[in-house]
Each structure stands twice: as structure tokens, then as C-alpha cells.
């Protein structure tokens, strides 16, 4: 069973590995410097407070540590409580037939697996970015985790598959009963105004290892 102290201990160890204090690690990750203070680990009511997945993602991005490294620090016996293995695919393959069903969930036997944060969606999958098409938002080697069941709101980054088979990473601007307005992510960013009938499926990107 995952223990509250094990996760906080892992954050402290990660900070030391990069010659930082917990507050220095928070600051480097763009968080409030007090985010990881010992006083913040317990609520005023005396209940245990857990670090958010977002804050963990930010400290990994700031240090360059991988999620697998963080899981290893937490301890293998606790790994299943914060991590899971999900299907993984190179994004360059994602537009090919046979990898997704009509609802945008993984299908077929040609997927690899990767360690990712534990999430509720059993159909979640990961795509590995290759090349510089999506810079500066996503770079070569980054991993994005996509949840077909996650609700989507304006401003969310999404993975969109069109009826012609092409795949896009975009930010949702607005969606109506007939049209979807998107801003493509990357160094060739452009706006896309699509008819709903032209979109096979659209799923939210819920995490990125950068």
C-alpha cells in the first residue's frame, strides 16, 4: 500500500539528487516555493495532503528525471499505486490503420508498453513524439498520455483523428453541434475549423513527460 511519507520522501530525495532543497525544487519547477514544505504536507485539520500529479510532472520536467526514475525512488512495492503500464506507440505510426477502433481506443497487438502515472481510464494510451513538428510544446522523445474517456473543455490540448486518417495535436478553441475550432500545436501551428463529420474522434491529452 502506498504510504503518504514515501511519496514526500521521494520528492526530497529527487531534490537532493539535483542539489536542491524542496523549496528550490518547487521554485525551479515554476511552483510556489512553499509547495513542498513540511508544513504543507498536512492540512490544518491534521489530514495527510498528497502532492498533485501536476506538481510531480513539473518537477520531473524541471530536473529532466523520468517518471520511471521517480517510481523507482518511491519504491517498487508502491509502484502500482502511482503508476501503471499502458499501451505505447510512436506518433508517426498512429495514423496507420489497425491501431485504434472507431472510438479512439487502442486495438491490435502491435503496441508497446510504457510506465505512466496511474489514471482512471483503462483505455488510456501513450504516444512518443518524434521530430520537431510539435516544438516548442512537445519535443523529440517526449511522451504524451491520452485519455479517450476524459471530458474535454475549451483550452485543453487534444489528439484529433480525422476521417481521412490524419492525426493532429491541437488546442480546443470551441466546439458546437456542427463545427470544431482548433489551434494546431507546433512549429507549423495553424487554425483548423472542421466539420464534426470530418472528425473520427478527439481525446484529451492528460499528461506529458517532458
From TrEMBL:
Q: Which domain of life is it from?
A: Bacteria
Q: Which Gene3D superfamilies does this UniProt record tie to the protein?
A: Umud Fragment, subunit A (2.10.109.10)
Q: Name one Pfam family in it.
A: Peptidase_S24
Task: Domain (Peptidase S24/S26A/S26B/S26C): give its ranges.
Answer: 116-205
The protein in question is named Helix-turn-helix transcriptional regulator
Q: Which organism is it from?
A: Denitrobaculum tricleocarpae
Question: What lineage, starting at the top, does this entry show?
Answer: Bacteria, Pseudomonadati, Pseudomonadota, Alphaproteobacteria, Rhodospirillales
Amino acid at each position: 500500500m502506498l504510504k503518504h511519507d514515501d511519496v514526500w520522501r521521494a520528492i526530497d530525495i529527487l531534490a537532493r539528487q539535483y542539489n536542491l532543497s524542496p523549496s528550490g525544487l518547487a521554485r525551479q519547477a515554476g511552483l510556489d516555493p512553499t509547495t513542498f514544505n513540511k508544513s504543507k504536507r498536512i492540512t490544518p485539520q491534521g489530514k495527510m495532503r498528497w502532492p498533485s500529479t501536476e506538481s510531480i510532472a513539473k518537477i520531473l520536467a524541471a530536473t529532466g528525471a523520468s517518471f520511471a526514475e521517480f517510481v523507482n525512488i518511491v519504491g517498487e512495492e508502491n509502484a502500482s499505486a502511482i503508476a501503471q503500464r499502458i499501451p505505447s506507440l510512436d506518433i508517426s505510426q498512429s495514423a496507420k490503420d489497425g491501431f485504434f477502433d472507431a472510438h479512439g481506443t487502442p486495438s491490435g497487438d502491435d503496441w508497446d508498453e510504457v510506465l505512466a502515472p496511474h489514471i482512471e481510464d483503462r483505455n488510456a494510451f501513450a504516444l512518443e513524439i518524434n521530430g520537431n513538428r510539435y516544438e516548442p510544446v512537445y519535443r523529440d522523445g517526449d511522451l504524451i498520455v491520452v485519455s479517450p474517456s476524459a471530458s474535454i473543455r475549451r483550452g485543453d490540448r487534444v489528439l484529433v483523428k480525422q476521417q481521412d486518417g490524419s492525426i493532429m495535436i491541437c488546442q480546443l478553441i470551441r466546439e458546437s453541434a456542427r463545427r470544431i475550432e482548433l489551434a494546431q500545436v507546433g512549429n507549423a501551428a495553424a487554425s483548423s475549423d472542421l466539420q464534426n463529420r470530418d472528425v473520427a474522434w478527439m481525446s484529451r491529452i492528460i499528461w506529458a513527460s517532458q
